[in-house]
Amino acid sequence: MSTLKYGIMGGTFNPIHYAHLFIAEEVLDNFKLDKILFMPTGTPPHKQNINIDAFHRYTMTKLAVSNNPNFLVSDLEVLNSNVSYSVDTIRKLKLNHPDIEFYFITGTDAILELPTWKEPRELLSLCKFVSVNRPNYVDENLVNKINIIKNNLGGEIFLLNGHDINLSSTQIRQRVREGKTVRYLLPDSVNDYILKNKLYV
Ligand code: NAP
């Protein structure tokens, strides 16, 4: 029997939008993964004051993936009242699912900070990483920088270029604040949820 492969899509998802969903789909396709597990952050290590309840971010993520059987959402970090470190999250997942191979998917900016994360060497031994470039992100030294991280810490980090949807949660929050529509930038169910709960106004 071949090993199951799951992508872990870690992020704030404040709110989740079509670029996140497309990235997840593209990684699933490129790396022949079985599922993508979205992991909205609870209290992330480096941002102690996200001004929106983790419950809303989690609920919007659930709504966004509800029509895709390959996309799942975990409440592991959202339910953790302490700061969530990725190494602890992946350790728990590995404990419950020792046979699954995990691919941690996140933005390149976050991955370049990996050496400052908690127990980065241990984390890289527990899962592989997929670093996704934002559109217009240019760093000619990126491959070098990633190689240095791999040489120092071990493990595998893959780079995925080519997604060029210029969409960010910051942009979406800004538009809502300005009373502009965000329909077609994210799933209708998420749009409805934002309006109903008066988020970001
Ligand atoms: P973030 O603020 O949500 O994302 C940073 C940037 O990457 C944003 O531009 C974001 O776009 C984009 N992005 C979000 N999710 C993405 C994904 N899955 N793939 C590609 N791009 C993505 O997240 P973050 O605070 O950088 O954290 C990312 C992950 O790293 C989280 O799971 C976090 O827990 C983990 N982390 C762990 C440690 C640690 O353990 N010490 C330290 C730092 C980060 P949008 O703004 O449009 O969302």
What do these coordinates show?
It is a single chain. The chain has 201 residues and is α/β, with parallel strands linked by helices. The chain has a single domain (4-166), classed as Rossmann fold. It is built from 8 helices and 6 strands, in the order E-H-E-H-E-H-E-H-H-E-H-E-H-H. The protein has helices spanning 18-30, 54-65, 86-96, 108-112, 120-126, 142-153, 169-177, 188-196; strands spanning 5-11, 35-40, 71-73, 101-107, 128-132, 157-160. Strands 3-2-1-4-5-6 form a 6-stranded parallel β-sheet, sandwiched between helices. Strand 5 (128-132), helix 6 (142-153) and strand 6 (157-160) form a beta-alpha-beta unit. Helix 2 (54-65) packs antiparallel against helix 8 (188-196) and helix 3 runs parallel beside helix 5 (120-126). The longest helix is centred in the N-terminal third of the chain and has 13 residues, at 18-30. The radius of gyration is 17 Å and the shape is globular. The N and C termini lie far apart (50 Å). The mean pLDDT is 92. Residues 9-12, 20, 23, 39, 41, 44-47, 84-87, 105-107, 109-110, 117-118, 132, 134, 168-170 line the site of NADP nicotinamide-adenine-dinucleotide phosphate (NAP).
In round numbers, the mean pLDDT is 92
Radius of gyration computed on alpha carbons: 17 Å
Structural class: alpha/beta
Small molecules in complex: NADP nicotinamide-adenine-dinucleotide phosphate
Keyphrases for this structure?
single chain, six-stranded parallel β-sheet, 6 strands, Rossmann fold, binds NADP nicotinamide-adenine-dinucleotide phosphate, 201 residues, alpha/beta
